[in-house]
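INPUT
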Amino acid sequence: MNEMTQTAGTQFASPFKQRYDNFIGGKFVAPKAGRYFDNTTPITGAKICEIARSDADDINLALDAAHAAKDAWGATAPAARAAVLLQIADRLEANLELLATCETWDNGKAIRETMAADLPLAVDHFRYFAGVLRGQEGTMSEIDADTVAYHYHEPLGVVGQIIPWNFPLLMAAWKMAPALAAGNCIVLKPAEQTPATIMVFAELVADILPAGVLNIVNGFGLEAGKPLAQSPRIAKIAFTGETSTGRLIMQYATENLIPVTLELGGKSPNIFHKDVANEDDAFFDKAIEGFVLFALNQGEVCTCPSRALIHESIYDRFMERAVARTNAIKMGDPRVAETMMGAQASEEQQQKILSYLDIGRQEGAEVLTGGAAADLGGDLAGGYYVQPTILRGHNKMRVFQEEIFGPVVSVTTFKDEDEALAIANDTLYGLGAGVWSRDMNTCYRFGRAIQAGRVWVNNYHAYPAHAAFGGYKQSGIGRETHKMMLDHYQQTKNMLVSYNPNKLGFF
Amino acid sequence: MSEPERVTATEAALRLIAEIEAEHGEILFHQSGGCCDGSAPMCFPAGEFRPGASDVLLGRIAGVPVYISGPQFEVWKHTQLILDAAPGRGGVFSLDNNRGQRFLTRSRVFGPDELAALTKA
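OUTPUT
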């Protein structure tokens, strides 16, 4: 633990430099127009550094660098590409506390989480893709005695990636690691709300990656993200965000006839069957924690377990524990090691969450705890904090139907399994879900019947690299994590070879 | 009772709309959903974002059409949307991006009479 993560009362030193340029062609390059914007920390609302305010010219410069690098990188031997990813992982690990601190300053999330989750998961992601890259094999099909179909994996070339602000470095790692492993070059646009940590990452790994393989261009979505998404010089675009922009990105992709990966959020049900409370044991305690995980990352998680479905016969007993556990969440300065919940990522995010608490009350939802902004006083008075909130209502309410992206869980009861399943699937989204039961048959049936890309059974919010993540319904298209991502970033080349010297005889 | 408006706007939102129109010409709104900047009313140049067959036109604010996707309309239709503007950076490719003020959707639950009028209409 260094001075940046020590107990309250000490002065916190910003881990950032005063200004960051773009990372293009292996160098730090000032934006062509010479413009920068102020990056603030949601912890206090204060400015922490200046970030390049780029436009289409800078995106094109990055695309030039990526295209110049793509042939050599695509032809780099798998073992050499894997070695680069492993070196990146080692470099991240050696600087884990620095990067965790950066992420906490930039995003407002608790250092406890960045140290234990964001950074270790990002490190492991690079290692995982270094591993599966070595294990990937093409196929060979014997069409007949003289004809063979060979299938090769080839990189797409240059890909565009637009990163969200909720797990800035981890979501970038989710996108960068498979794309690099598959032999692609990248032009990456971080979210303007959280643009800084990835520049520290770039400084750390600049000497590992060949110039132009990874290019990071900061700026506003409209000025820098849009020209990237619209560019005919990318072979794929990957985006994490909301549905309207997801549609617009798909629209741009249709103009260029390129594939998209979209991760657009969810409204994940977390279902607690009655046998959960059969014993007051470690499992029951784990289930209570599973409920309270709605507050992880201040609820700014696409898979936030934001709808809790609890069997009516155990509701009182379950909620007594769940409310008490929620009330035990220690809010505070996220730079302090003991803090469990920090700041929302921006003022507008805080305002949006509060607007949902308002609509929830209008719809008649009962506030079981929380329900307002949190004023933590002192330096933090300028930051953006919301109390962890539990609402009780029914599934037709807006607070059950729309992603609040805050520390808010909406709770309802069910009387039997059919009703639980009906409520769980009565949603526009299908990204995550949780099922809690001591009965393996119940777990299996629910796991299969819930229309979501990830169903956690007797656990929640685990994100191993080796498990596929992605959405059904309006939660998006494609998957992230897992070795299948290599395929998402590759072309299939079929070489159909005849070993027969004789003509067909048609002409 | 006459049919209530499905979407209205505050003075602050009207000012921001006028400012953006002066710079970008014709615009439209599409009410977003989902993660990150989800729930924001995204403001796009008209003709760039293509409303689809299942989108629902909620109404017009100062002549600017406001759309929502059909499935989202189904679960939001018991509420009136109130476009407001508040300090912020704006969402992704929305034209309020980086103007200091951004659009924010507030909501009001329709009363029984209003819902009856909307159902009848």
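end of record. Chain A touches chain B through 52 residues (CB under 8 Å).
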